[in-house]
Fold each of these.
Amino acid sequence: MKPKFLYFDLGNVLVRFCNDTMVRQMAEVAGIREDAVRAAAFPTGTPDDIQWQFECGRLTPDEYYAWFCEATNSSPDRAALELACSDIFAPIDASLELVTALAAAGHRLGILSNTNAVHWPFLTSSFPQLNEAFELHVTSFGARSMKPDREIYDQAAERAGCELGELFFTDDRHENVAGAVAVGIDAVPFESTEQLAGELRRRGVAW
């Protein structure tokens, strides 16, 4: 069945990113060791970590900055810290060209991404295709829910005005694809832009 709405993950689908670069740059700006940043932001590698809480929208950027200063016993310039946190992305040109072509062909597109309120404005200002090609942006900090939780997929369908089964979704993380499939979305893992284009053509999506 041809999908009515196409959702795309952001990281490693439309843009590449590097958390190690983020940690290094934040440490440099704050004048502290990298392991101090890791211990503060990613102590357990689970959703209990402060970085996950920030992506879930449970902390505002003001609260995140205040937390960082207290947790690391540092007082970095806030603008410099936010730039260090955010300047970690690079475009996947082939994917951005694909979504631009899909939008030009009249397809409805959206971003469905786990991201935070500092990264998001940096991304949309750095990569204009994220505004130009996409009708909807469903973010974890805005939805207050992270993939693969059902709530964010339900919100994605509601905002698109579609049933879950009328959506197509691609993500590089298999657990997020599995979460989407479990609620009835036609979802596939992202392996390459060429592979994604083939998946769309098989579903009758032309551009």
Note: The first strand starts at residue 5 and ends at 8.
Amino acid sequence: MKFLTFRTEEGLKLGVKTEKGVLQVQKTVEELLADGERVLDEVSSYVRRTLESGNSDVFLNEEELSLGPCVPNPGKIICVGLNYRKHAEESNMPIPEYPILFNKFDNTVAAHGDIIDLPFNSEQVDYEAELVIVIGKTAKRVPKEEALNYVFGYCAVNDLSARDLQFRTNQWLLGKCCDGFSPLGPYLVTSDEVGNPNDLGIRSYVNGEIRQNSNTADMVFYCDELVSYISQFMTLQPGDIILTGTPEGVIFGYPKEEQVWLKDGDEVTIEIDKLGGLTNRMKQEV
């Protein structure tokens, strides 16, 4: 199933994308992730009954909705650096021996369609198309062979990065944690619908021009390896998310004379097979 959130006067509501439109369900994303199998069964039955009823009035037009982040309140936001071979090569950095982990915070969370501020104190903001793993079960020291059983689903993210701030010191956090730097969505797609997460086309576009065009098969550490590895050191809880790295084609990887950083008015779209397209427009902060 494809889940989304949308904004209303009463706050964010949860919906399911169907062939007839968006069907609102009386659950929250937090309830969905905390009790996945039971809630999924309830939602699946409700969607089926509603579709069979022939009542089209209950379906909402997605184009008329203001979408929220598909995971509005993630717990831990864990990121993986240099996790695509060709991206490591374009960055002139060695292929990692172990996953390079860093974190973001919830101030970075934004939604499909949101305007993203380019910080007033950065001149080198870059895009990064990434696959996100959304944890659905408590995972501690899980073997790689079982790791994907702890995943509820997947979504897309633009892991925006202010490169001049990122490389100001040896710690990357400053350039990764600006407000709105992790738009998530448009959909949270369940694991069964995605299938193999390491066989998905992944692309980014700036103003309609394709910049990244790769496949999640190019990851250094696959999704099952990442969940297993991280769970050896910290307990993963439902609602935690893992940003799995970006492929080649980011601005940082261009020759310096060809680097044109994101600017006011630029529109960036992240596309991942089976997960839809995530689009945001940039606005220069003053």
Note: DSSP finds seven helices and 19 strands in the chain.
